Amino acid sequence: MKQYITIEQLKELTEEELIILNSLHFNPYLQRIAHPEFHTHTKQDWVEATCKINIGTMIEMIESYTPQIEKGRDWTVEIIKGCISAPQFIRKQNTELCDSLWERIKNII
Fold first, then answer.
1. Interval 45-90: pLDDT, tens
2. Is residue 1 part of a domain?
3. Per the domain annotation, does 2 fall within a domain?
4. How many structural domains comprise the chain?
5. Are 103 and 61 in contact (CB under 8 A)?
6. Are the CB atoms for 96 and 2 separated by under 8 Å?
7. Which of 2, 14, 4, 11 is nearest to 46 (CA)?
C-alpha cells in the first residue's frame, strides 16, 4: 500500500497552492519549496516533503478543514466492492487510498 505522495504529485501544485498546503500542515521542507525567493531547495527537500505528506497527515488535514459543525462526528467508512466512502470523500475502485486522499487535499486547496 502506497503511504505517501510522489514528487510528481507535489509538483502538480502551483506556488500558491504549495503555500496553502504548508499552512494546513507545516512542513519545513515544503516551506523551502513554497518560498523559492527566500530559500534554496534541493531534490532532497522534495523527497523529504513528500515523505511528510502521508496517509495520516492527509487525514489530519482533511479533518482540520472539515466545517466546525462536522467536528466531533466520527467518520463513517464503507467498503463496498472495493470502494471506500466517507463524508465528502469517495475512493474509486482500484485506486490507492493515498492517491484518493491527495485528490481531496487538492480540492481543499
1. 999 999 999 999 998 888 787 665 455 555 544 444 445 455 455 5
2. no
3. no
4. 1
5. no
6. yes
7. 11
Q: Within 13 Å and on the Cβ side, how many CA atoms surround 67?
A: 4
Domain boundaries, position 66: 7-108
16 assigned to some structural domain: yes
The answer to whether residue 99 is domain-embedded is yes
- pTM attached to this predicted model: 0.74
How many residues make up the chain in this entry?
109
What DSSP state is assigned to residue 53? Answer: S
10 Å CB burial of residue 64 (0-12, 13-18, 19+) is exposed
Among 9-13, 15-19, 90-94, the minimum mean pLDDT is found in 90-94
